[in-house]
Amino acid sequence: MQACLDFEKPLVELEQKIRELRGFSTESVDFSSELQKLETKAEKLREEIFSKLTRWQRTQLARHPGRPFTLDFIENIFTDWFELHGDRNFADDPALVCGFARLDGQPCAIIGHQKGRDTKEKVKRNFGMPNPEGYRKALRIMKMAEQFGLPIFTFIDTPGAYPGIGAEERGQAEAIARNLREMAALKVPVIVTITGEGGSGGALAIAVGNRVMMMQYSVYAVISPEGCAAILWNDGAKGPQAAEALKLTAADIDELGCIIDEVVEEPLGGAHNDVKLAAQNLKSCLKKQLDELQQLSAQELVDQRYDKFRAMTIMQDEKIADAAEDSQDSSEG
């Protein structure tokens, strides 16, 4: 049986039965009617499960072991991929893949987090948690893209930047801060997609873009639910409760109105169920956003990006003002 989450088990077991029954079918033994009934049942079950997912279940889906990573999207969306390595200062960081490719013939730069499938690759990729050299490598590629006038696509899927002692000694915070500053001033289109987990500064370090999109079952937050629970209740096991409080899903963040620009629809059941269709949906969104941004001048791109991120703080100020006004009204009453 394929790797699955707890809430997926009834569906995965039913699909396994369908595959087994299909294998037993021969010219002399026809199970077509039984197969049709089971397939209909599976479709209804899938719709039922995925129509009422909790925020914690969506978080689990964003971390699904079969979910496509950056290299999977590169394989299914882009051509002529050429990866570059190293920050020309310390080392290469396999947790961040960087390079150049073409989107329907259009040269572009690509930067994205890469997790691993098996234990060996997970360790090699450091579970998608970059070190400072990863962010410095990413910035090197961004600057090269700017020099040659190429659009930049970033794909985010990380629980956060690596918090190890070595990373701190090599300037993790400085590397992230520098990326935030430099990305804000890039004179080429920057399109960001949160494909899985968007965790804290580790995600934001490559997420300052003119357009920010989220896959339907991705999450984006300042901290993981488990980390939040550990701080608030000294119990990381209360992650599901923290997830509800954080409101970290694509639907939640889209409601805020200024954080992301589009939610990319995934195949029913999640991107891991049909990687090619998920990639095709994302490709359509990337092309649409790029076409719009290519109409802007270099200065307009910088101004638009600046205004976009400033608007996020204005929204918070308005909320604080509204809360203060409500408090004053209640005290007067």
CATH class of the largest domain, named Alpha Beta
CATH level-4 homologous superfamily of the largest domain: 2-enoyl-CoA Hydratase, Chain A, domain 1
**How big is the Rg?**
22 Å
Helix-strand makeup class: alpha/beta
Q: Tell me what the CATH architecture of the largest domain is.
A: Alpha-Beta Complex
Shape verdict? globular
- Tell me roughly what share of residues is in helical segments: 40-55%
In total, how many domains does the architecture comprise? 2
Low-confidence stretches: none
Mean pLDDT: 89
Main beta-sheet strand count, sense and barrel state: 8 strands, mixed
- How far from one another are the termini? 62 Å
Count helical runs: 14
Notes on the structure:
There is one protein chain. With 333 residues, this protein is of the alpha/beta class. The chain is 52% helix and 15% strand. Strands 1, 2, 3, 4, 5, 6, 7 and 8 form an 8-stranded mixed beta sheet that branches. Helix 1 (9-24) runs antiparallel to helix 2 and helix 4 crosses helix 13. The longest helix has 35 residues, at 298-332. It is globular and about 70 Å long. The N and C termini lie far apart (62 Å).
